[in-house]
Amino acid sequence: MPGAPQVGAPASPAREAPTVHSSKFLTCMRMLASGCAVIAARHDGQRAGLTATAVCSVTADPPQIIVCVNRKVRAHPLIANSSALSVNMLAQSHEMVAKRFAGLVDGVLGEDRFEGANWEEGVTGAPILRDALFSLDCRVIEAIPASTHSIFLCEVVDAKFAEASPLLYFNGRFAAVL
Ligand SMILES: Cc1cc2nc3c(=O)[nH]c(=O)nc-3n(C[C@H](O)[C@H](O)[C@H](O)COP(=O)(O)O)c2cc1C
Questions:
Q1: What would the pLDDT profile of 70-119 be if each residue is shown by its tens digit?
Q2: Residue 35 class from Cβ within 10 Å (0-12 exposed, 13-18 middle, 19+ buried)?
Q3: Is the pLDDT of residue 9 over 80?
Q4: Are 65 and 87 in contact (CB under 8 A)?
Q5: What SS3 class is residue 159?
Q6: Is 33-176 in CATH node 3.30.1490.20?
């Protein structure tokens, strides 16, 4: 069986250790200062997006990233069905965009979240934020189930960037680079 301990091999302490309590884990993760992105998708003429910090570069050749998206969010089926998404890394001036796409502005859902900012269509059809710090237009090449989330492995098909300061998220608050 792959991954099973070999007969005669010493027991691995890591295998025996219980998982840490999720509240302690969440406290640690709140202290991970991150850039904020809006992950957006379009399918059948419908757009949706979410504010996200779970964005990570994987390889430069080929240019690949992963993003982690909760399966319950509205954008999830649009990403899965279109096999495309955009990652729009936000600038400091985009705090309200981040709040809208995080569900922190009452009654602003789905398509309404795109109002108040300039969006265009990328090569893949995914929505691209015009004045983002940078935007990656991506084709999804694999969707890996991970408990409540899907890890989307993506190939970057187009990219653009601007001169701006990033919007950060740290300890439950939006923040700026000093
Ligand atoms: C700073 C910040 C980072 C977030 N990062 C993620 C993330 O990486 N993945 C995710 O699935 N949700 C993340 N969320 C939560 C979603 O933005 C939020 O649940 C959003 O409202 C989902 O869209 P929906 O209301 O259309 O379902 C984050 C929220 C905030 C405030």
A1: 999 999 999 999 999 999 999 999 999 999 999 999 999 999 999 999 99
A2: middle
A3: no
A4: yes
A5: strand
A6: no
Q: How far apart (Å, rounded) are the C-alpha atoms in residues 22 and 19?
A: 8
**Is the CB–ligand 1 distance for residue 168 below 6 Å?**
no
CB–CB of 152/142 below 8 Å? Answer: yes
Domain boundaries, the chain: 33-176
Tens-place pLDDT, residues 30-47: 999 999 999 999 999 999
> Under DSSP, is residue 131 helix (H, G, I), strand (E, B) or coil?
coil
Return all residues near 176 (Cβ < 8 A) that are at least 6 apart: 92, 165, 167, 168
Can you give the pTM of this predicted structure? 0.94
CA of 160 to the centre of ligand 1 (A): 23
Query: Ligand 1, from 70, 90, 97: best to mutate by most atoms within 8 Å of Cβ?
Result: 70
- 30 close to 12: Cβ distance less than 8 angstroms: no
Taking the C-alpha atoms of residue 173 and residue 105, their distance in angstroms, rounded to an integer, is 15
Q: Distance (Å, rounded) from C-alpha 71 to C-alpha 172?
A: 22
Question: What does the block give as tokens for 35?
Answer: 């850039």
